[in-house]
Design goal:
Mean pLDDT: 86
Largest sheet: 5 strands, mixed
Order of helices and strands: EEEEEEEE
Helix content: under 10%
Number of strands: 8
Radius of gyration: 22 Å
Number of helices: 0
Structural class: mainly beta
Low-confidence stretches: 1-16, 23-30
Distance between the termini: 70 Å
Strand content: 35-45%
């Protein structure tokens, strides 16, 4: 008997006795999930601590499956291109007006943001994050961040 021939109701842990040669696993590479990606983000190349300026970002659903949940996009100020808990929160944008997001479609958000007044100066990054808290299950949760370099004065 092969493991694939067993029904869940037939399996009791103590009854399983088979060799590795008898185990057959088949998998179909179908993904029934969307994938959200920040494909474009813009901001000025320079900013001032406490200053306000306009930014925009575009989130695309680059699969053939609709994204049916609603989520928040976030913008953070960071020392590097990778989001972590030390990054400074700037804004959150509810996406309810843009969802569900059909397969292959996108939306663009334009907002004025204000940099923190007590941060560090020098080379920084604005991180644009789609679905920060993973409300929408996706095929790839690792590609939701885009970093844009900004010089803070």
């Amino acid at each position: 008997m092969k493991l694939s021939d067993l029904l869940v109701s037939d399996v009791i842990a103590s009854d399983l006795a088979f060799t590795s040669e008898e185990i057959t696993v088949s998998s179909t590479a179908t993904n029934n999930l969307p994938n959200l990606v920040v494909e474009d983000a813009t901001s000025p190349t320079q900013g001032v601590l406490g200053g306000t300026f306009e930014v925009s970002w575009t989130v695309s659903n680059n699969t053939d499956v609709d994204a049916i949940a609603s989520w928040y996009d976030y913008v953070y100020l960071s020392d590097d291109e990778i989001y972590d808990s030390t990054d400074a929160y700037i804004i959150a944008q509810w996406t309810g007006n843009n969802t569900p997001l059909p397969a292959g479609d996108n939306y663009t958000v334009t907002r004025n943001i204000t940099l923190p007044g007590n941060g560090e100066t020098g080379s920084q990054y604005l991180l644009f994050i789609a679905d920060r808290y993973n409300y929408q299950e996706e095929t790839d949760e690792t590609d939701n961040v885009t970093a844009v370099a900004i010089e803070i004065e």
